[in-house]
Amino acid sequence: MKYTGYIGTYTKKDSKGIYSFSLDTDEAKLTDVKLAAEIGGPTYLKITDDKKYLYSIAKDEGQGGVASYAIDQNTGGLTFLNQQLADGPNPCHVNTDSARRFLFSANYHKGTVDSYLLNEEDGTISPAVSTIQHTGSGPDHRQEKAHVHYAGMTPDEKYLITVDLGSDLLVTYTVSEQGELAEAHRLEIPGGSGPRHLTFHPKRENIAYIMTEFSSEIIVLNYDSSNGSFSIMQSIGAIPDDFTENNQGSAIHITSDGKFVYAGNRGHNSIAVFRVDDESGKLTFVENTSTEGDWPRDFVLDPSEKFLIAANQETNNLVLFSRDAETGKLKLLQSDINAPEPICLKFL
Question: Who contacts 8 (Cβ-Cβ below 8 Å, separation ≥6)?
Fold first, then answer.
């Protein structure tokens, strides 16, 4: 099989926007990295469940926001549809609901979460209908104010969940039919941990996992769908205890069978592998695998989940691993695929 993937990037140096690449699972090779769409600062991407549209972060001349693209179902090519920009820094995360009614963005610099209505006919984005300003701070010097880093729906789609790295908060919102947000619950994460990204267990919808940026650990959560509340069940480190240099946790993803969680470490430059307990959802550390480069900002499992691709931001390279479905362990296959300023990886 050949799969098409997309790379969200910074455009501070050599990158010109969103890039595409191919994975040949028979040959076990990554190839054909090329520019798919020229746009400023597409640092995070979201592909809709029906594979018809790609949404990205966008910035242009002092403004930031979100952009929409139609995906050619034959070639994987991207056609620009529209964008919604506002004065100030661009967001850092973009997401949609499964029915493609709403789009949500999290803005690290502004400390806000925004919601938009989507046109169900053509995939275009309406102006923002709701903007929530987070407040607060944390004990780390990088937590001088709110920094919202993630926004995504719960599996039952009753709530929008936001993760605030600056205030050490997980905040739950209801979403009205018009896309307006109203706070339902908040959970305080241990001070100074810097919660960054979140993923839900695919089989156990009452279990979620947060990757922290500053404390480099995964926090296992129990989710109560009756009121949108969360409680902490476990915290487990993602780097060796004797590693004392700078490390910042990055991405977190879980396999579709719910058996393994993977987490990225920038500084230690590794992917941490964890086995998931079938009964409790708690984690057991398996191993760290080097990403063969510097500052792995993101990684992705391919659709077959036989492979994992990591993106090293500072060394501008993609790295291909094969994945053992029984042990969760990764084996290096390829590390020399050039990609400019890679920040986010998504498969079609």
Answer: 18, 42, 43, 44, 45, 56, 57, 342, 343, 344, 345, 346
The whole-angstrom separation of Cα 149 and Cα 54 is 20
For residue 216, what are the contacts with CB-CB under 8 A and spacing of at least 6?
A: 237, 238, 239, 247, 248, 249, 265, 268
CB neighbour list of residue 240: distance below 8 Å, 6 or more residues apart:
268, 288
Task: Classify residue 216 by burial, with Cβ atoms within 10 Å: 0-12, 13-18, 19+.
Answer: buried
Give, as one character, the DSSP assignment of residue 72: P
pTM: 0.98
Cα distance between residue 286 and residue 274, in whole Å? 5
Euclidean distance between CA atoms 246 and 92, whole angstroms: 22
Query: What pLDDT digit, counting tens, does each position of 61-107 carry?
Result: 999 999 999 999 999 999 999 999 999 999 999 999 999 999 999 99
> φ, ψ for residue 276 (rounded to 5)?
-100, 130
The CA-based angle 252-258-261, given to 5 degrees, is 30
Give per-residue pLDDT as tens, 149-203. 999 999 999 999 999 999 999 999 999 999 999 999 999 999 999 999 999 999 9
Q: Using alpha carbons only, what angle is made at residue 165 by residues 97 and 46, rounded to the nearest 5 degrees?
A: 30
Q: Tokens 């640092």, residue?
A: 43
Give the whole-angstrom CA distance, residue 1 versus residue 180: 41
